Amino acid sequence: MFVVPLIERKRDGGALTPEQWSALIAAYTDGRVPDYQMSALLMAVVLRGLERQELAALTDAMLASGQRLGFDSWPTPRVDKHSTGGVGDKVSLVLAPLVAACGVAVPMMSGRGLGHTGGTLDKLEAIPGFRTGLSLAEAKAQVMKLGVAMMGQTPEIAPADRRLYALRDVTGTVEAIPLIAASIMSKKLAEGLNALVLDVKRGSGAFLPSLEQSLELARTMITLGEDRGCPTVALLTAMDRPLGRACGNALETEEAILTLRGEGPADLLEVTYALGSEMLLAAGVEKTSKKARQRLANALASGLAAEKFEQLIEAQGGNPKTVEDPSVLPQAQEVEVYAAPRTGVVAADHRPRGRGDGRRSHQGRRRGRPHGGVRDHGEAGRQGAGRRTDRVDLCARPGRNEARLRGARAGDRDRRQAGGKAAPVDLTPGDEGRRGGAQAIGGFCTPGPQSCTLSSSGASCTSRSACSSSV
Amino acid sequence: MFVVPLIERKRDGGALTPEQWSALIAAYTDGRVPDYQMSALLMAVVLRGLERQELAALTDAMLASGQRLGFDSWPTPRVDKHSTGGVGDKVSLVLAPLVAACGVAVPMMSGRGLGHTGGTLDKLEAIPGFRTGLSLAEAKAQVMKLGVAMMGQTPEIAPADRRLYALRDVTGTVEAIPLIAASIMSKKLAEGLNALVLDVKRGSGAFLPSLEQSLELARTMITLGEDRGCPTVALLTAMDRPLGRACGNALETEEAILTLRGEGPADLLEVTYALGSEMLLAAGVEKTSKKARQRLANALASGLAAEKFEQLIEAQGGNPKTVEDPSVLPQAQEVEVYAAPRTGVVAADHRPRGRGDGRRSHQGRRRGRPHGGVRDHGEAGRQGAGRRTDRVDLCARPGRNEARLRGARAGDRDRRQAGGKAAPVDLTPGDEGRRGGAQAIGGFCTPGPQSCTLSSSGASCTSRSACSSSV
């Protein structure tokens, strides 16, 4: 494989042919192209971009590198959700069993943390015994039996993406829209779906903090999905604060369970309903958003959704009692309580905290530890205008107390926001590493959760009044 | 070593601190930073550039990764020449013994072919027995005894550059001015020089074909040298045609020997004198260009230069009879003679010929084979206006006849040059791989050899009348 001319062409702003992308990805997957050539090419892609045909060819090549989930003539519609990830985003854990309880199958393949955001697999694995490493055959059988499976990317699915994803993570080539889109879509298209709903996070805690980037990513994925026979809808949801109140793997799993039991925070429920109703509509089991929401609410209220999660946990080797009693989840041995110095909101922050980079090699990624996290106890009922937070619990890792409060330091965010009067309190949850990270900012209110729906036929905003940006 | 944030900073257009460059290069040299991270960073450098302080820090770090030639209080001035490389550039083989014969020591460290241009080491190794792999101690002793050594980069000199150079070659990150400058200067500064003369090639056959890039490279290296106590002068010389008449390792060595014996082509001699007189001036052994040229001419005419090359060959294990009888050099077993269809000049061409990339891994580079090459037998005396070429010999590798003539095909070059009336004859010397490559173009005359001198005090052109571009 003569890779240098291809790298040079991309470096100089040219485009590779579909055949070149196909041959290159196949050779990389086979180990015939070394990592050092691929990482140089990836950096050239980050800085030069990909043309539409190139992106399609790259995605197809990644998809073709592995197998696909085949449901043959099984009539149940399959829909999945993908989130671009944000601080405290535990939606998948609520949504998958909830939608499955409404009669739509969810063969959900998730990832681990990327950048500063946590991964669904890490959260699921906080459940004692839970096994995310299903084979394709196991996943298929479970989906056809229970209507839902939650698993990691199996070795059979898009192995090219698996290698590229690991390489990007250690070569500064993660934050590139075409590469993000190709990675997501190559896996999702392998799930044998009838439709796909994307949760594109926007705001300070999102993977891509700017609105323009979020929109570009959403449009890129919609095009990729539509062109490949998988109708795709994207919701743009707020990530200028953590979703819900808990950040940290076990704490988020606990919050997801509480939400399935009807005891969850309103913002998390709102995003779950927004995504879930799009999934029911895309699957064709409901015709209107209103009816879809009602169906979701019924599944929650009746306990069917929680029961589905219990069945899912049991099927995947986890302790099903976790739903009834979340205290079986790993607990922090030390809990420190900090009082915010003044009233404000907890904002999500995507910026690295200078704690260094725990990733030493793309072969040996550090996995999230389940105990640590941040939980806030804000007043309820002030959701729309910005949740007030008067204290924040910090759950540190047993035996070490890395969690620390950097009080009253003037942060960049505060300076950027002229309306902010008070100095921010910067909470650095040491145990979470790059996953999580929350910042309490005094005296500043961000708009409430909102969602904007994007599809190939246009855009609509479910809470236009609360949405400060036009889509 | 936490490399990802550094890669990300460069990717996003920021600058690394001198301390970061220093730590990074040290860690890469030790193997603590993997190739795949370095190649991503190198690509970011290619596309984002380096600030002046970054370039200085990178060069210093590469220099500091190894040892330096120390001549202590030895009074003989040391000057070296470096060429950016071009088709048929065998100047080093003439210049080093010639300048040494004039009383200036030349501790010359050269490289192998990079991109499409041949390397001095490959040419020297065409001499039976010639050993380019001297240790630092051997080189020092030989320079102090003979006044000249011609060697490869020893393992002790700039090992960081050695690794980076090999990695760049296989990752499409060769053609970047700061990286080229840092690579050259980190080695040259390790030679214990009093001054350095650079031969920056310009024109279609040069490594950097555009004048702007050639000038930028020259200025970059002059600044790096001056800032580090090594006065540096750059000559910009023509590379819109092969230098001399021979391309191919053994053929070029033969031509260099003929030149040392006073039988060389005028263009090669002109470039050699231009560089040599700058070296004598920089060393302080002559005060004017005229006197320096006269001294060089005397050393050639008296046979001292040829004798110095003989001594050099003998000292480095080669067959010293080669100077007297170049037929001991490897000979092609098949020679095909092609007649150019019409009168024209042989032009140098830097473009890849689509013969694929012989480099498979940065650990196992293919070395040039000595037999193959191209030699033209043009009329003498038409040098200034464009050498007429009526036939071209093509010396193929024994046992294979890959050399082929693609006649009368309308090439890109011809189309770009409106003045060209005839279709070009495209000679593809298969045996040379990416090294060499000559193109006979009918009916088109390029300007004659010219040299422009650049130093930190300004620029001058030795043949302004023949120079079509203002420097």
Describe the structure.
2 copies of one chain form a homodimer. With 471 residues, chain A is an alpha+beta fold. Chain A has 3 domains: 4-49, Transferase, Pyrimidine Nucleoside Phosphorylase, Chain C (Transferase, Pyrimidine Nucleoside Phosphorylase, Chain A, domain 3, Up-down Bundle); 79-326, 3-Layer(aba) Sandwich (Pyrimidine Nucleoside Phosphorylase, Chain A, domain 2), CATH 3.40.1030.10; 331-422. Helix content of chain A is 38%, strand content 16%. The first copy, chain A, has 16 helices and 15 strands. The first copy, chain A, has helices spanning 4-11, 18-29, 35-48, 52-64, 91-101, 120-124, 136-146, 159-169, 177-188, 211-227, 249-260, 266-283, 289-301, 304-315, 321-324, 412-416; strands at residues 79-83, 106-110, 148-152, 195-202, 232-238, 246-247, 334-339, 344-348, 373-376, 391-396, 404-406, 425-428, 438-442, 451-455, 458-461. In chain A, strands 1-4-5-14-15 form a 5-stranded mixed sheet, sandwiched between helices. Chain A is globular and about 60 Å long. Residues 350-369, 378-451 and 460-471 of chain A have low confidence and may be disordered. Chains A and B meet through α1 and α3 of A and α1 and α3 of B.
